[in-house]
Automatic annotation (TrEMBL):
3-dehydroquinate synthase N-terminal domain ranges (all copies): 62-174
GO molecular function, one term: metal ion binding
EC number: 4.2.3.4
InterPro entries reported in the protein's UniProt record: Dehydroquinate_synthase (IPR050071), DHQ_synth_AroB (IPR016037), DHQ_synth_fam (IPR030963), DHQS/DOIS_N (IPR030960), DHQS_C (IPR056179)
Protein name: 3-dehydroquinate synthase
Record's function text: Catalyzes the conversion of 3-deoxy-D-arabino-heptulosonate 7-phosphate (DAHP) to dehydroquinate (DHQ).
Cofactor: Zn(2+); Co(2+); NAD(+)
Amino acid sequence: MDSIISDSYAVHFNEQAFKALNNHLADKKYSIVFILVDENTHELCLPNFMAEINGEYEFEIIEIESGEINKNIETCVGVWEALSELGADRKSVMINLGGGVLTDMGGFIASTFKRGIDFINVPTTLLSMVDASVGGKTGVDLGALKNQIGVINQPVMVLVVPDFLDTLENRQVRSGFAEMLKHGLIQSKSYWEALKEAKSLADMKQHILSSIQIKNEVVLRDPTEQNIRKILNYGHTLGHAIESYFLENESKEMLLHGEAIAIGMILEAYLSHKLLGLSEQYLDDIKTTFLDRYDKIEFSEDDIANILKLMKYDKKNSHGKVNFVLLKQIGEPKVDVEIPLELFNEAFAYYKV
């Protein structure tokens, strides 16, 4: 795969990824190379990653606990303290080896430590390869509220090695694939149709490059999310609220990001049908495609009421209004759409049927 060039960094693949990394490390001569891992990537990915590095450098490994529940400022404080104790300075670099939680948080930690040190993202999940590690969004959650604290700051480079996906359980793969399906819905009907045929991990790997290209093109047009970049949030206004609700509610089994976003995309497709004229054919196609891949979740009236309350914290909101990204048709999104309150219950009713 050819490298994808963004505004200030590149996404490199497979052998080219390690070649680019080794050249960069030799050129920059960092004081210390820190590698941020969780317990899973420490065991399953770090040995293979280290085996590809040429040259003698001072390495320090920092391990954090995996999971969205640990994506918080307390974890950041622990890593900042470790960096200080281990002698990190502004000529150090942090390599974030992990999924979306780790690359989001690692980028934020690096961007704020001593007012910013270099960081490199090495995503190890499908979600982080096609979404979280690309585009410069970094940050942590505030309690159960998703990504409330953070900055937009670009990595030095992103290294995508699809072989890392072989370490994942199927549920994690499906979670990442939801974001790929989103790329089809917001950008290309032909890509949406192609993705619907992907059944195995090998099939999904073939489309990673296309998804990263779609996200990169959008980010290049609007790096700080003033307008068109908002289309990448299709399904996320309701999806993030659902994810947050299931994260904070001890009586609920936690949903992975892609599982919650899949529900959000069905709900927001219904809103698109009612408000922007998305055809019933496309609406049913979207619902069928997601429910074929993701388990249907039961929502009580109280669940729905609490989820709708959480929407007011969405990052796209302004002036007290909840703004949505909806679809005129597949491949044609519209941003900043306000929704009449009565339609939300209708959308959940459509999902339940």
